[in-house]
Amino acid sequence: LESEHHLSFNALKGAYSAGTICFQGQIQGVQIQVLIDSGSSDNFLQPRIAQCLKLTVQESPQFQVLVGNGSALTASGLIPDLPVTIQGHTIHLPVYLLPITGADLVLGAPWLKTLGPHIADYAVLSIKFYLNDKFITLRGDQLAEPGQSQFHHIRRLQHTHSIDSSFTLQFHSIAPPSSTAALDSLPVDLAKLLHKYWTVFDEPSRLPPPRDQDHSIPLIDGSNPVKGIIQPSTSPFSSPVLLVKKKDGSWRFCTDYRALNAITVKDSFPIPTVDELLDELFGAAYFSKLDLRSGYHQILVHPEDRHKTAFRTHQGTNYTSLCWFFFL
């Protein structure tokens, strides 16, 4: 039975896609969102609409509706003759109650079959059919750019189940952290040092300040970006990125700068050997080490070299880095 009843994932979420047309409709004068979806086996209505309008619902055997993402929803209740007004035209159709999100009403294959021959133009989002001795054309809503909404409006939509969920984002202050119990437990001189240079010891959450030595990327004379990695961008450079899982399960963002490094002037400063370092430590009684938190991100890239750090995402969008990236 499950295979006989199905709903496309776009219809479940009320999303715009190549096989859907959305427009505004009315039931008993109340505005609703209507979606035409040829991939849905039945006509479905959001139960809260029936409850809000106190529509007469007949009992019917419950059945499972298979959704395009592999999940299943339970349909319960039937309205055998629901009048819906769309752009001045009234249609009557049977609908099952199904807890869909996004659209309030999904017009599936059964309604499309009642139209007989019809023309659905998904390029301009319109459907044309013959009804009551005349041709009717319904024009779908164009996808609008998202706008700003007040938080209390979003909360109200969530309470009416018009949206799945909402989240609150809290922005932290960029002011220097005040003295804490952790600093008080440290030696006075060390606590003063940590507080004075908190921008270095704190976990990076913003761009580092400009310093005397910003990271530069000098190229070998005559070098050009390697062929095959150039994408349409404001920068002629474009390096691929990938995610590598760490031991703790988190992800490391990696940029493949091998092509860029191959045409970069090499730093001639020799790396000291272990034996030389041990000789330097001979006779010393106190030792110190420096381990900056995300040290690469605490160094700005020189403005003239930032375009060379461009990397592309899987969507083809290019970005450039303002601070020093790993693997450069």
Please list the strands of the largest sheet in the order they lie side by side: 2-3-9-4-8-7
- The CATH fourth-level homologous superfamily of the largest domain: Acid Proteases
Distance between the termini: 58 Å
Rg, alpha carbons: 31 Å
Fold-level CATH name of the largest domain:
Cathepsin D, subunit A, domain 1
Count of discrete alpha- or pi-helical segments spanning 4 or more residues: 9
Largest sheet: 6 strands, mixed
Secondary-structure arrangement, i.e. CATH architecture of the largest domain? Beta Barrel
Question: What is the subunit organization of this protein?
Answer: single chain
Query: What best-fitting shape do the alpha-carbon axes yield?
Result: elongated
Could you say which structural class the secondary elements and strand pairing correspond to? Answer: alpha/beta
**Mean pLDDT across all amino acids:** 77
Count of separate structural domains? 2
Poorly predicted tracts of residues? 226-232
